[in-house]
Design brief:
25% of the residues lie in helices and 41% in strands. The chain is an alpha+beta fold. The protein has one domain. Strands 1, 4, 5, 6, 7, 10 and 11 form a 7-stranded mixed sheet that branches. A 4-stranded antiparallel sheet has the order 2-3-9-8, with helices on one face. A hairpin with a 4-residue loop joins strand 10 and strand 11. The protein is elongated. The N and C termini lie far apart (69 Å).
């Protein structure tokens, strides 16, 4: 999967499945709302992320495409009506009609056979917040949704370069603050010792 630096990628653990009521249609969720997930782990600490329920309210979803592993061929697309994206109370629901090409039908058969079961989405962030108390990043506004993809390997989302970069910055800031606090504490102890010695 080619990682583009202006995008973030997340894989949802919920399955993508063929629709029971119609041929060549798959349904699933590209993401869920208000449902924190662990995105990164460092020194025993879990750094989480959550997509706010209203994060997609103003997102550009004008022509999202469906791909396989975020690259190559397009199997469904909003502009021709073969891909529908619907934010609901649970998350970003997708419905893709994979009947429009031989390649799309082949992807459908692989999903139906249980060979491909997971979904991912590519997006850019417009606004977010970070809570130090529970080490959780909340994405409050998504700028654009680029694609939703069927994915072959449900890899740990922490492999995403953008996410890792975000949390590396958070971790570095926390380390710097901890070191500064420790240095202030050592300085206080030195002053206390000097005061006691001079008494």
């Amino acid at each position: 999967m080619p990682i583009k630096p202006d995008r973030e990628y997340r894989i949802l653990s919920a399955p993508m499945e063929p629709a029971a009521d119609t041929d060549f249609v798959v349904r699933g969720y590209a993401t869920t709302f208000d449902d924190p997930y662990v995105l990164y782990e460092y020194e025993g600490n879990q750094y989480k992320e959550v997509i706010d329920r209203h994060a997609l309210d103003e997102a550009d979803m004008s022509d999202v495409i469906m791909q396989y592993d975020h690259s190559g061929r397009v199997f469904a697309r909003q502009s021709n009506g073969s891909l529908k994206l619907t934010p609901d109370e649970h998350g970003l629901k997708i419905e893709a009609d994979l009947s429009r090409s031989a390649g799309a039908k082949e992807l459908y058969e692989e999903i139906k056979a249980g060979l491909i079961t997971k979904m991912s989405w590519a997006f850019s962030v417009d606004a977010d917040e970070y809570s130090r108390s529970d080490r959780t990043r909340t994405i409050t506004r998504v700028k654009r949704v680029y694609d939703v993809s069927a994915v072959s390997i449900p890899a740990n989302p922490s492999t995403d370069i953008a996410a890792r970069g975000y949390f590396d910055g958070v971790i570095e800031a926390e380390k710097a603050e901890r070191l500064e606090a420790e240095q202030r504490e050592r300085q206080k102890k030195k002053i206390k010792l000097l005061v006691e010695v001079t008494k």
